[in-house]
Amino acid sequence: MNKYVYFIILCLLFGCNRPKKEVRTSLDFNFDWKFNLGNVEKAQKTGLDDSSWRDVRLPHDWSVEHSFTQKNTGGATAFLPGGIGWYRKTFIMPNEAVDKNTRIEFDGVYTNSEVWINGEYLGKRPFGYAPFAYDLTPYLNYGDKKNLIAVKVDRSAYLDSRWYPGSGIYRNVKLVTCGKVYIPQWGTQITTPEVSEEKAKICITTDLSNDFEEDKPVVLKTRIFFQNKEVGFVESALLVKAKNAQKENQNIVVLSPNLWDTEKPNLYRLVTEVFVEGEKIDEVSSTFGIRSFKFDKDLGFFLNGKNMLLKGVCLHHDGGLVGAAVPRGVWERRLKALKEAGCNAIRTAHNPASSEFLDICDEMGFLVQEEAFDEWQNPKDKRNNYNQETEEDITKGYTHSFEEWAERDIKDMVKRDINHPSIIMWSIGNEIEWTFPNYGAVTGYWGSNKVGDVNYYWDEPPLSLEKVKSNFKNHPKQKYHVAETAHKLSKWVKEVDLSRPVTANLVIPTVSNFSGYADALDIVGLSYRQAVYDYCKKNYPDKVFLGTENWTRWHDWKPVVEKEFIAGIFLWTGINYMGESRAWPKKGSGSGLLDFAGFKKPSYQMFKVLWNDEPHVYIATQLLSKSPYKWDAKQNLLVEKEKDWASHQKWGWQDVNEHWNYSHGDSIAVEVYTNQKKIELFLNDKSVGVQSLSDNEDHIVKFMLPYQEGKLTAKAVDGQATYCLQTAKKAQNLSLVADQEKIKANAYDVVHYTLQLTDENGIPVKNQEMEVEFEITGPARLLGVDNGSPSNIQDYQSNKIKTSGGKCLLILQSTFKTGKITVKAKTKELTSSELEVLVN
Question: Is 568's pLDDT higher than 80?
């Protein structure tokens, strides 16, 4: 081989191994920020010395880092502080980025954010849940000269919400650089209007922007991949005018598509390439799913032609001890637990979720109702509702910005999320009628028009429809009109997306169905109004109705099973959330199926039996004196202490224990949650009796017996399902379990450590509590501890926690270092074994 040939081969080899030139970079911009809590004069200026500021990484929520307190806080927002915070980050732009377009993308900043680059003001965004971006190109320095991005976050109105919103840059940030003919943010819209098992038509609309001074001929190439195999291709040629933008529509047919559904959430990848004069100058990858769905006014919901029930939950955006800055792994653990219960749908209460959260829903197979607003023009009173004694300025929220910003905010939500196959409807508002007196006052449920002792939650409207209409017509006019605003919001949504229906959560459908509000909706959502399902169907037979906020109770699921026209419900809530507290020291709502630490509650077990065909049995117990039941010797049954107690229960669950530890001879009410026809209860292998599920209107099989130490077992009479509780002795062991064996050294992955007190026989001890301290070594960041209890108000950022139900949680996050994380738990008397997690 001569030297020339050898040289050519080397050139080819090095050419093959040379990195491909990137036409677009999307940089993780979450690291190396400086943070200061408190207002700082001229903090946006490049000359400011910020060396004393804290080093933080994003997403970041400063409120959850603080202690729970009653000083300058309130129960509405979980007794955690607000304030004003500043973020600063210096960065270098390479010379290769000259003559390109660079923007910064924020997925959410709570709240009233303002942004500067190199001292130049870029703009503001009042809505704390809005995704947004700024063009940095005109202001950037390149090469060795540094750039400064500064962000001011103003949450000095610390009671601006009815729940815990968090504070700061609490969602991801990216820095995107691309060519001067490019696809802008959210510039690829994908819909699947025609879907069958044989083929699917994929419609792609691509936005193209030309920042050049002259027209540019563009070739747009679009490919679809499934599991890295190309399954479709289309190419278009067009001319994009100088300093202009335009859309290009393309269609691709995919044969034998792998459909997305709740059981098999198959995902495709669409890659769009932009060529100018033969050179590729931009490329965007988008994930989507192929599926069809519809809502039928008589038969409910259909996914890919299959009729199914929506087994949904409402979720606020906090993740417990991590606050509003929720790592992906925390959501994955929580959503996995909900999936195991049979949950298949999520309502984002009451604002847009993060993009990352929706990615998880796509991947795990959850159907999503994404909601835009909790308030429109009129505020919901955080003072009277949550016993807050404070000035109105402290409760100043989004209503002050709604008129100016609502169109942009709701359109940006839809633009960002249009490609998520999980999303099946857009909600424009939650219980908006609260804030409009002409809605509630005319119904006969409240005020001067109230009829007798009628109850809003359990009774049909007490006045005739004609009388309610008359009252509404004669009521004093309001400054703003619900129906008019609803029609504008619906119109704005449909200007972006015609492929999904628009809904809202109506709290006074008695009026909303005829006022024009419901006419703006494709689906009428009903909030705690199962009492008027038949009334609504009778008076408005052509409307589609859905339960969009419901109690975690059998009496709210029962109508879904019985009435075909009700497609499903969304329980309030899937997980406990911070805020909406009316008394210290309670940090939030205990209405969830999972508690604050993501542990499963008795209500979770109830819906696991309601939402699954797989045989399931679960036992909860309580002293008869503390239970909602009494013994009826005549019927030889447990019956309700209060008439209609079970069918009139609202939020939360009755106080029950998940253990078998009482005093000898105590009268104990035993509740068995099951989907089996008959249950036989055994105490120490001796039968206590048999109960039929059909004999219990509240769907809870109940027994009463005197307490005796030992083993309590519930068995399905005609099945294999069984469940056992055993009397626990004194706690002798700390059972520590990690949900991961290895994680990545990416500073994102998390490990959940669950600790349960157990006795000498390994039986869980749920009636004793101990303070536990965790000893942690290795490359890990401590996110915090919790025990799941609403009354736990200790600092989250600690390695010590008192158990609740003998249980607690520790969450650690990886760093950029590899190695082994070692965790050991101890109390004054006990020590656990060490757990090792590998960090690769």
Answer: yes
Tokens of 779: 């490359």
3-class SS at 732? coil
Which of 683, 702, 726 is a domain's end point? 726
- Whole-angstrom CA distances from 343 to 303, 310, 312, 548 are 15, 8, 6, 14
**Both structure tokens of 163:** 């729940």
Separation CA 340–CA 460 (nearest Å):
35
pLDDT at 667: 97
CATH, residue 485:
3.20.20.80
193: domain CATH number?
A: 2.60.40.10
Final residue belonging to a domain, choices 176, 199, 223: 176
Task: For residue 665, tell me if it sits in a domain.
Answer: yes
Same domain membership, residue 227 and residue 166: no
Residue 712 lies in a domain: yes
437 burial type by CB count under 10 A (0-12 exposed, 13-18 middle, 19+ buried): middle
Residue 702's DSSP bridge partners are 671
Parent domain of 713: 615-726
Exposure string of 691-723, with b = 16+ CB inside 10 Å and e = fewer, is bebeebebbbbbbbbebbeeebbbbbeebebeb
- In this prediction, residues 412-418 reach a mean pLDDT of 98
Residue 8 in this model has a pLDDT that exceeds 50: no
Average pLDDT over residues 682-701: 96
State the pLDDT at residue 1: 42
Number of domains in the chain: 5
- Please give the helix or strand (H or E) that residue 10 lies within, else none: helix 3-17
Kindly state the greatest CA–CA separation across the chain: 107
Q: What is the mean pLDDT of residues 337-360?
A: 98
Report how far apart, in Å, the C-alpha atoms of 827 and of each of 470, 778, 787 are: 68, 21, 15
Q: Is the preceding peptide bond at 73 cis, omega within 30 degrees of 0?
A: no
Residues 70 and 156 in one domain: yes
